[in-house]
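Listing S7. Sequence submitted for prediction.
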Amino acid sequence: MGGGMSLLLIAATPASAQTVIFPLEPLLQTQIFYSVKPSQRALVTAMIPLPNMYDTKVIAVGEPSLTTVEPLFVTKAALQNHTGIDQMLMSQPISKAITTATTVTVTTGFSSANKVSGSFKLSDAVTFGAETTNTISFAEAKAQTTSTTDTYTLPSQNIKVPAGKQACIYASLIKVQAKGNLALQTKINGKAIYHLRTTPQVSDLYDTVVKARSNGAPALPPQLSLNSSTRSLDFSGTATFLATIGTNLEAKTYLYPVEATCPDNAPATAPTAKFSVPAT
């Protein structure tokens, strides 16, 4: 591309071995340059892309993988029967405030002066547990985390306690780790401006890229494609999400002599009774 304005071709630089964020404006400048007739390229003194992003979406892809993790101990309590007959005793409600964090990591995105971000609700991928909403920057290579705190309550329970015994109650939050994939989508239109010496030339961005393609411009990144129906450049990127979610608040009861002290932790043996409620 001899003479006139020199053009620097900027490739996407991986932020990590698994992440690619490419700069949009330099890429569009290349397209603008190639849209100009070869005989006039030496006269080009400025190339100004003005992209506009719209119809931005973050979509859960497929089913997330779910892995059970170590239950979170909530509390312990005791119901004591000092009488000589069996009794039905009522436990106190058990509540626990739990924080759910969802981390999203962009694996393929792009940066632009016109910043673009999309919203991801955890409930779009997982149908149980707490709700979080992440606002995801398509240009951010670092993990993006949003958290929310909810209080889970296990209602009072009627528990049969034999004479001279106590029911030791241990409550835990049963949790799973959800991991899944996301599709990042947006459409790009706008204007393309270049100067022939000092005279500005303005054209539609979509038409500019189409003309550049026919003039042998370097290939677009695979995440960008021309959409003739909407006259836009369509971006299709990727991300992953990771969240640890409470599924059930569970209580187990074990019987001990009334004069004994409830152990700090629930024993490994089968409980006398067990009950749970969904962690919603």
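Caption to Listing S7: primary sequence and predicted structure tokens for the chain studied. The radius of gyration is 30 Å. The CA atoms of residues 129 and 227 lie 38 Å apart.
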